Amino acid sequence: MAGTFSPMTTIFVLKKNLWRIPKRSLGVTMGTFIRTKRVLTSKKRLWGMRTLGLAVLPREPGSRGETGGLRRTWRRSRWSWRTAGAGGTGRTAGNPTHECPSCGRAFTCSSALKRHAMTHTGERPFKCSVCGNGFRKSSALKSHAMIHTGEKPFKCPLCPRGFVQSFALKRHVMKHTDEKPHKCSACGKAFTDSSTLRSHARIHTGERPHGCSTCGKTFAHLSNLRSHAKIHTGERNHRCPVCDKGFVESSDLKNHAMTHTGERPHKCAACGKGFTKPSFLRNHESTHGGEKPHKCDACGKAFTQLAALRVHAMGHSGERPHGCDVCGKGFAHLSALKVHAMIHTGEKPHRCPICDKDFIKSSACSRHVKSHSAEKPYKCFVCGRNFADLSNLNFHVKCLNH
């Protein structure tokens, strides 16, 4: 904090406004917390105080001062007393006596330990009455409820967008300023917030700390584990209004809805091809550059994406980790198993908008739609026959050769 302040002054940074209040008006003593909505003069507990900054109680010259050289800093939803001694280590005053039996982490109060324990047990006592999602804290449930009501109290000053939570607004504003203060030491990639950096770092370390208690599969992120757990429970709260298909996540439903509307919002700048997901677009864009950094050790074939190489490698090893529960057939990729499972269930989610014929795969539906058109741009140079789809032409040529 720039500038020199009187030892009889306390500095408050609240919602980016600088407050200078004489310490005598605060009457600060050990264990006393200060809070007011308008004027910071009343003694109250600080639970729930919204702040973006730091309150420092400076020491008297030549002594530890009235507060014993303690600094109060904002940590999540409460103030904590932290020492400002030699070296500025900032250790929390008082001994944390409540230790987690699962991971050994210690807490100063039992309520904090109880909340932390839920990260191990998966307990979510606060349930949403609309979608059934559970939360560890009532405040998290209140924030979640705004998704259903459409309420977005945190507005961006630079664009019309609104957000449910303040930290989401902070991250968003950094996109306008292009500020990315958190940089990965392994690859140099920068991020707007530290939590995203920590998640990214697991790509390099391979860390997957969140394990499924049912099947043992591990995940790098807790959110991925929660989504996976719904596969075992059969929970499908998000239903398509067109075909009534259920989905674990709302994002999956949004992507599915595009199969009905034909929407492809993510366009390739090079060729104009559209995609339902930005990840699909990124994969496609790498094909234009011609760079294929991921090479197979067995056959030398190169791939633009590491995930594609891993799937390819299973062809050499014969590994099929994803098995069908009905017939036992194994698949190298989970998406292939999902498509195969539709054979047993009879599900055909992709419908032709012209004749209402249903298909298991979107690619098969797209080929069929072309059959309604008189356009057949693919011509066989052997017999002169025209085809609406390139794959049909290739199949035709193979038949001629055999």
A few lines on this structure:
The protein is α+β, with helices and mostly antiparallel strands.
Key features?
DNA-binding transcription factor activity, RNA polymerase II-specific, 12 helices, RNA polymerase II cis-regulatory region sequence-specific DNA binding, transcription regulation, Znf_C2H2_sf, 402 residues, disordered N terminus
How would you characterize the overall build of this protein?
By secondary structure, the chain is of the alpha+beta class. The strands form 13 sheets. Strands 2-1-3 form a three-stranded antiparallel beta sheet. Among the domains are: about 10-90, no CATH class; about 285-370, Classic Zinc Finger (Double Stranded RNA Binding Domain, 2-Layer Sandwich). Helices cover about 35% and strands about 15% of the residues. The protein is built from twelve helices and 27 strands. It has helices at about 25, 110-120, 140-150, 165-175, 195-205, 220-235, 250-260, 280-290, 305-315, 335-345, 360-370, 390-400, and strands at about 10-15, 15-20, 55, 70-75, 80-85, 100, 105, 125, 135, 155, 160-165, 180-185, 190, 210, 220, 240, 245, 265, 275, 295, 300-305, 320-325, 330, 350, 360, 380, 385. The relative contact order is 0.03. This is Zinc finger protein 501-like. InterPro entries: Znf_C2H2_sf (IPR036236), Znf_C2H2_type (IPR013087). Keywords: DNA-binding, Isopeptide bond, Metal-binding, Nucleus, Repeat, Transcription, Transcription regulation, Ubl conjugation, Zinc, Zinc-finger.
